[in-house]
Write a structure and sequence with these properties.
408 residues, extended
């Protein structure tokens, strides 16, 4: 029923606006003629003045003055209405915040010490405060904040109280609403409290690339809801994921401390976004067993895949062949990748190989890379840096001076 109300409101507003535009257009015609007909009935225009010097454009001018005054009055009425509505909501908000801050938090943190009778009494009191949508949203917001910051018994107590106060139909109505803000609220609630049963519909939302914000919210909700299963679903459905969404998903995985991730499926996915997600998560969670799987993406034609593969492979580099692989990739990677390779190759046990590479960078690369190479070279062979300071190239001398000045 609530969903039907949302749709009636959504389409009602649009039909009302369309009707207003149509009436303004038709009204401009009716206003400029002595009489007009509607549905077979002829009406006399009381605003029409039959004077020869009254041209048609003057009637239109008078008409739009009338429209301006009409809308001024309408805007004034809406302003008064929304101002009163805001004051009422502020009053309710203050009342609820005082009540819930005092009693709800106390109930959650002392629940284990209360008798069953006292628990029932307090829950009944809470239910009296969740009789309309606004009050429900207030308590949902508080419970979400508590749940996000608590674990164990307190987290479960918050989940139980949420289930008792907020019926799943309320969440469903918001998820099926035509309004983006309602869907976003529902997706956030579903993700936070791990409410099952909406996965198929959320995947449908994730497929809507045209609605970018909703697409992103749906992806985050799926990952937080059941990371392993839903990532597999997203891979199988080849759902598009942008780099920004990859970072957003990773942020939520880290915040929720999620460890059950299908690394293998992600790393062998044909979906670019999923592949990058798998590479980054392998690096963040130190999954060295996937080093060889990631190594092959160093040769990728996609600059972003290549860069992330280099960053991840660099964290796992151990033997000389790993450092040689990175060195051979240096000329065909991004700025971030180059800086990472310089830092990684500097850790090689083959000192001669490392010095040769760092000197080559210091001589041949732009100033940013020269400085980074010399900074690492200074830790290995200070004499080499001193000799480079005598270089004929002013940029090399400048980079040397900068590195030496910083280390004085």
């Amino acid at each position: 029923m609530r969903t039907l109300k949302f749709y009636l409101e959504y389409w009602g507003i649009r039909l009302f606006n369309l009707a207003i535009i149509a009436l303004i257009g038709y009204g401009s015609y009716c206003y400029s003629v002595p009489e007009f007909s509607i549905g077979g009935h002829v009406f006399k225009n009381i605003f029409y003045f039959e004077h020869v010097y009254f041209t048609t454009w003057l009637y239109y001018l008078n008409y739009f003055v009338f429209i301006f005054l009409f809308f001024t009055g309408l805007i004034f009425i809406f302003t008064v209405y929304y101002a009163l509505d805001k004051r009422i909501k502020e009053r309710i908000h203050n009342k609820y915040m005082e009540f819930y801050t005092t009693y709800l938090l106390n109930f959650i943190f002392t629940k284990e010490f209360l008798s069953e009778k006292e628990k029932v009494r307090r829950k009944e009191r809470f239910r009296k405060y969740v009789r309309n949508d606004y009050s429900k949203m207030l308590i949902i917001d508080i419970l979400q904040q508590i749940h996000h910051q608590t674990t164990g018994l307190l987290g479960r107590a918050t989940e139980q109280l949420f289930a008792e106060l907020i019926h799943v139909d309320f969440i469903r109505s918001y998820l099926l609403s035509p309004y983006y803000k309602h869907k976003a609220i529902a997706l956030n609630i579903i993700a936070e409290f791990k409410i099952q049963g909406f996965e198929r519909y959320i995947i449908r939302l994730a497929r809507r690339k045209s609605k970018k914000m909703l697409h992103t919210d749906a992806l985050v909700a799926l990952v937080r809801l059941d990371t392993f299963a839903n990532l597999i679903q997203l891979i199988n459905n080849n759902i598009y994921i942008s780099l920004w969404e990859v970072n957003l998903i990773i942020d939520n995985i880290e915040k929720d401390n999620i460890s059950n991730i299908p690394y293998k499926a992600l790393l062998y996915s044909n979906n670019r976004g999923m592949l990058i997600l798998g590479v980054i998560l392998s690096r963040l969670h130190h999954k060295e067993e996937f080093k060889d799987d990631i190594k092959k993406y160093i040769a990728s034609d996609d600059a972003n895949v290549k860069e992330e593969a280099i960053l991840t492979f660099s964290t796992f580099a151990e033997d000389h062949t790993d450092f040689v692989c990175l060195r051979n990739t240096y000329n065909n990677t991004t700025e971030r990748g180059k800086l990472c390779i310089i830092e990684t190759v500097s850790k090689s046990n083959d000192t001669d190989y490392t010095i040769e590479f760092l000197v080559w960078v210091a001589i041949n690369e732009p100033i940013k890379f020269k400085t980074e190479a010399l900074r690492n070279l200074l830790l290995i062979d200070m004499i080499k840096v001193a000799s480079l300071k005598k270089s004929m190239d002013p940029l090399v001398r400048m980079a040397c001076n900068e590195v030496l000045d910083l280390n004085i």
